[in-house]
Amino acid sequence: MYTIITAMKKRYVFLIIAAALLVLIAIAVIIIVSPRKPENVALDSSLVIPHLKDGYIILRQGEATYSAVFSDVSLTDKRFSHLGIIRIRDEEIVIINSVGNLFKKSEGVKTSTLESFLKEAMSVGIFKFKYADASQISDKSLDYLDRPFDWGFDASNDKRIYCSELMHVILKDIAPEHVLTAVYLESIGKDVIPLDSISASDMFEELFFLEIDNKNKKARK
Description:
By secondary structure, the protein is an alpha+beta fold.
């Protein structure tokens, strides 16, 4: 009996070690395959600031692995994975955006500095909604501050809001005749709002685009 118990303990320890190794391997793979900015290259906020006005929409492509998942929801324009609203008061620029923490399943609509928003960006685009005063968008975005992130990706309910849903709920209030195009995502069984419903839509004007040139290690317009 003692021999059997000892063997079971050894097998249990072996399984724990094997599981730990698998976790370490998975983490290493994620680190290796995740898109990364070239060393010492970042999107310079001074290149972006001249193109910003209160109420403009800023889109970015993040460098995290899950950013590629969000950009792939778009059918035609896959340059972006996240959205924010520009808010400018007394020369102070903030970005109002809904941020989700994939591991903690937390956060939501908050303000970020332009520098922190660009820190994770591989590319950035500035857009203007054509059919309402931009300041209306900026002012309305304040109504949704502190709403939790919508991990259910349910655009029919604004108690929780995911990133592109923020623009959706704002337009429902200030320009209900203009609706962002949704696509059906079979994996979650819901209609979701892709970012190309903005970047590839006639309702918005693209004013500026900047990306990191991986080959030459510099920002490229």
